[in-house]
Amino acid sequence: GMQAGFLRCFSPLRSCRSLHWRLNALRYSSNVARIVSHDKFNEVLEINYKGETKKIGLRWLRDHCRCDSCLDQRTFQRLYDTSQITDDFDSKKVEIDSSSNQLKVEWRNGHFSTFRMDWLHEVTQIKAESTQYDVLSNYKLWNRASFKQQYPEVSYNDVMNGARGIAKWIEMIHHFGFAIVSGCPPLPIGENAASREVMEKLGTLKRTFFEPEGVWDFTVKPKEQDKQMEHADTAYTNLTLPPHVDGTYFSEAPGLQFFQIPQHDGEGGETVLVDGFQVGNHLKRHAPELFDYLSSFPMPFHYYEKGISLRNTSTVFTMNRDKFLRFTFNNNDRMPCYIPVDQERYHYDSIAWLIKELNDPKNQISFKLRPDQLLVTNNWRVLHGRKGFTGSRRLVGAYIGMSDFLGTGRLVQSVPPEAQKQ
Ligand SMILES: [Fe+2]
Ligand SMILES: [Zn+2]
């Protein structure tokens, strides 16, 4: 049941030594909350909990009421009409129920709110500016010298055997922007279900006009280069592909991209990867005015084929405060647009510099994927390219949207859903 408010019971208890000692022990060694002050004039509450004192506004508390009429308990959607807040937030009574460790607030209009202290503690750690993409800022920049032929790798068995293996895989993708799953089962021609099963561990595959079912599976054969390509893209040829990210022309570029080469009976075709954030970081330090241009100019990209017309603009380097969030560039897909003459020099100096860095071997890693290896890249960060090849080469792949991938990560790392549960 509800005990007397902490403030009121504190003074009388002080005279009783043993109770006082017990109370202090509770306060400092366990997680019993204490109201430090209740400033009615400014409507601010100061609460000490888990060794830290935090100021919480009463408007905020009223807006975050967890009761049945303010919050839908099945969907965690807000039912409270926040426009009522100026009439509602005036508090009549505020107390801590120390037995259940809950903050109880009675409002002027008679409404009653209860907050679990653990919930309050958790929710007040969440910063608005870092809720959506914060995990993406946990990256380690790399170039060719960073790896000694040992790339981030996880085994097929690990990722198929539960959350721990998947969590490890996701962590590698956050750190390096790519990871390889080794030991995947063979994919006979015409079959890719085994590959799909691994890819779906990280989220729902994205359906696009390239592949309405989500997985692409095609073989480039010699002497078929002049025939009709499946789509209007050099990915469907055996030519060298310079490092790029995919889908610069989508309103939101694909978050993850998978690559598996189950069969190749010729030479070449090595995969090339570049860390777009590392290149950006280098530019920021050595040519800040070019970096400023590439992180502010809305570069247009496009894709055309019969029946399809896509366009998007994006800065090459998109930042989330002082961290890199997204790299967007594919020179082949850059769309014609007018550049004012006074901008022209910056425009071309920065693009030329960028392309030189992306093609500089010191920034590239390169390896030939084995048939049992499935590569995944963070397509918002790591560029992929391919060396030209001979013979028949089969490519299986797919995309996952960034929202889906980040959602999988939260669930696997068992972060409670927005810490909303009462
Ligand atoms: Fe590509
Ligand atoms: Zn309520």
CA gyration radius, whole angstroms: 28 Å
List the uncertain runs.
1-17, 416-422
Count of the domains: 2
Helix/sheet category: alpha+beta
In the CATH scheme, what's the topology name of the largest domain? Double-stranded beta-helix
Largest sheet: 6 strands, mixed
The CATH H-level superfamily of the largest domain is Clavaminate synthase-like
Q: How many strands appear in the DSSP assignment? A: 20
Name the quaternary structure. Answer: single chain
CATH class of the largest domain: Alpha Beta
Query: Given the C-alpha coordinates, what overall shape results?
Result: elongated
Work out the helix count: 12
Distance between the ends: 18 Å
| Mean pLDDT value | 89
Proportion of helical residues: 25-40%
Name the beta content range: 25-35%
By CATH, the architecture of the largest domain is named 4-Layer Sandwich
* Biggest β-sheet: strands ordered side by side in the sheet: 7-8-18-11-20-9
Protein name: trimethyllysine dioxygenase
GO molecular function: iron ion binding; trimethyllysine dioxygenase activity
Cofactor: Fe(2+); L-ascorbate
GO biological process, one term: carnitine biosynthetic process
